[in-house]
């Protein structure tokens, strides 16, 4: 009945990820308020660094769980697709490094 | 009557910055939805890269206007503080590079 | 006689990696020359971006081969250490993101 | 008598920059040795992060001196080119952020 019975690599921590992203959403709203209230440029930049770091933290967590579950799963059950999966994960990491 | 008559370096583009940050806020909400709907890990990571890039774009714009207005202003009107201002801006850039 | 009979994940491409790193070494020597010859600051910065990108490219390749060989190997032959290995790889990716 | 009367922003620290870049060159040679000696992937990645961080440190120093000298100089002596110079510096920072 469930199209995705196993869920994703991050399934066990879904609630925690959504909570972290909600906090990040609040930080982005805080940035709007800072601009609206003419906060000093450098303080806005410091806060953007904090939000970026928080987002990257979420990304690193997702990468970890993707490798631990999805990639390792493919290694066992679907070795034909393993190279594709690792390649895909690597491209995602490369995109994070460039963003 | 205005506590900050000169405004900040980004003052002329305040509305545009707030609009960009509102779009980023929507993207962060989109990330929560993606997690909630069990979107494939790699697609979530791709979207996180896009949000990070958008945030960095805002930061680069703020740095540009800070240098163009605040730093250049200090060079003319407050040379004693110029070194401090440039040092402070450089530290903000270093933080962005590490975030 | 060989302390590391299996080699590392990157073993099949050792020569290619060393060649890439030799080119990067040449680029770093080029940077010294640029500074020595009073090259315009912005042109030095552009070249530093190119070297950083080349280094990150090497890192991304190593991550890919580490996951494809070492992590997948642990999944099959040493499942007790799998979590440690993925955690260790994730920490390395996090360090790259912050560097 | 001075081949470069204006000098670059980094002129007063030329020797220090060349020394830092020489150390980075040595670190890149160290990376080649690590690969050649089959060092564990994660240890190579850790070292790449250190080299990248050292390179970014040089870049941040150059940005600081470029703004302090070249940009501020343009503000005083060549205001027509100020916007171009700040735009150019900002683009260099954006490239660093993406590298």
Question: How would you characterize the overall build of this protein?
Answer:
Four copies of one chain form a homotetramer. With 99 residues, chain A is an all-alpha fold. The first copy, chain A, has three helices and no strands. Chain A has helices spanning 14-36, 41-77, 82-98. The longest helix of chain A has 37 residues, at 41-77. The first copy, chain A, is elongated, with a radius of gyration of 18 Å. At the C-D interface, α1, α2 and α3 of C face α1, α2 and α3 of D.
Short description:
Chain A has three helices and no strands. Chain A has 99 residues and is mainly α.
Considering the chains and any ligands shown, give keywords for the structure.
metal ion binding (chains A, B, C, D); Methane Monooxygenase Hydroxylase, Chain G, domain 1; Metal_Tscrpt_repr_sf (chains A, B, C, D); mainly alpha; DNA binding (chains A, B, C, D); homotetramer; 99 residues; Metal_Tscrpt_repr (chains A, B, C, D); 3 helices; elongated
